Amino acid sequence: MSRDLRKRPGSSTAAVNASAGAGTAISNTATVTSATADPVPANNTATATVSTPTLTPGGDADTDGLDNEFETKYGLNPFAAGGDDGPGGDPDGDGRTNIQEQQDGTHPRGFVITYLAEGATRAWTETGMSRTLAMAEVLLSLVFFAAAVSYARATRAAA
After folding, report:
1. Cross-strand bridge partners of residue 14
2. Are 148 and 116 in contact (CB under 8 A)?
3. Which residues contact 148 (CB under 8 A, 6 or more apart)?
4. CA dihedral 129, 131, 133, 139 (to 10 degrees)
5. Is the pLDDT of residue 9 over 70?
6. What is residue 36's DSSP assignment?
7. Across the strands, what pairs with 28?
8. Rounded distance, CA 28 to CA 17, Å?
């Protein structure tokens, strides 16, 4: 995107006209106040160039080995290659890296938390049968979580 800022002579208004490509135009106006007139109005021009990142679903914007589609679907930053958003990250703490989760088609942030949050939100915002099903979703998420914790404790004790 390229932007051209020019102060209109004899006024305190600056007009900004920008184009973002593909026929997109952005206009903005800012007010500039000064106690004295500018003796050289010809130097009141500034140009800035910015770019808007684009994502292709099958691409890999940050070249970390994780598909853009996978990262956006599960709340990872497709423009960050490190930390919890990178291939070695483990945001749900289950011992499996994001790259392993992508290869196995599993959720890198833990599906129990996702279903619990979704169900709780729907239980408060929906009505009728949808609300009843949302409460059932919350209950099943909690039961599954308790079963997973019990299983983890039993297998650790046996090891």
Report:
1. 7, 30
2. no
3. 112
4. -150
5. no
6. S
7. 16
8. 7
> pLDDT tens for residues 133-158?
989 988 988 898 888 788 878 877 76
Alpha helices in the chain (DSSP H): 68-73, 98-104, 111-125, 128-158
For the chain, the domains span: 2-49, 55-109, 111-158
Give me the DSSP letters along 14-29.
EEEEEEEETTEEEEEE
Q: Tell which residue, 65, 67, 68, has the closest CA to residue 88.
A: 65
Q: Which helix (H) or strand (E) holds 3?
A: strand 2-7
Block residue for tokens 């404790």: 153
Residue 20 φ/ψ, nearest 5 degrees: -105, 15
Task: State whether residue 47 is helix, strand or coil.
Answer: strand
Chain CA centroid to CA 30, Å: 30
Tell me which residue has tokens 């102060």.
7
